[in-house]
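Good morning C.,

I know you're traveling, so I'll keep this short. The sequence:
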Amino acid sequence: MATSIIPPSPTTTATPPASGLNPAEAQKQPVDYLNLPCPIPYEEIHREALMSLKPELFEGMRFDFTKGLNQKFSLSHSVMMGPTEIPSQSPETIKIPTAHYEFGANFIDPKLMLFGRVLTDGRLNARLKCDLTDNLSLKGNAQLTNEPHMSHGMFNFDYKGSDYRTQFQLGNGALFGASYIQSVTPHLSLGGEVFWAGQHRKSGIGYAARYNTDKMVATAQVASTGMVALSYVQKVSEKVSLASDFMYNYMSRDVTASFGYDYILRQCRLRGKLDSNGVVAAFLEERFNMGLNFILSAELDHRKKDYKFGFGLTVGE
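The tokens, ready to paste straight into the viewer:
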């Protein structure tokens, strides 16, 4: 068989990529460090793990009703009945039956959100979020109560840059705080925070790192107050996520590790966790119909022999 001595055309034969890379890797563009994504706020770096590991567990019965008056304004009514724990020197948990009603008003606009709650025990809670500019927003929250020295308020100024975020906090009791987080690669962001509590003469500094992709999120945080927090979330599929965290306080030598899951079905969402203290918890949200949700909550503390169960109904969107 005759062999052609004509060299192959460049349009018919692909040149092997350098360094043994496959064609997909060879076509990757270099990282543009001048066009990095904006990171999430410093205070929310653990938010994916908290969604699975810290659901809103409750004990007893809860009923929530929300009625929209127009596209921006709505009213809410909540009734809660269940035991309340009271501090005690005894190792056993002491609970007393309680019940209260909560009335709320909500105003939601693209640039302004206002939330107010008043309870029958005299507490008043208020929150606001206002976009002062496209990059600068103001957040505030306050709680007023009849108990002495228990009322508090705080304002946060959040500035969003192209690849960074910075926040300044001002609260009662001469509380000042500031945080900054910066994207250093498309997936990695680093940040730090400082605070000063003038009323208690305490100050602190902290650092954090967050690495996220489409399938996972890993975070690490350390502070001079003695807190070390690690978390990891793996997205198994579009409906299933697994989460774990590790909390260590080198001042008190307290250590806690948790493992949790978040399972989203067509009509319900199931979240749960198990921690190293022997606490098992689960939280189920079942949607019966548009605007009608059923809630089940359970928390079992085998070490303290404290078992909490709750159910609720949410009406309205």
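Safe travels,
E.
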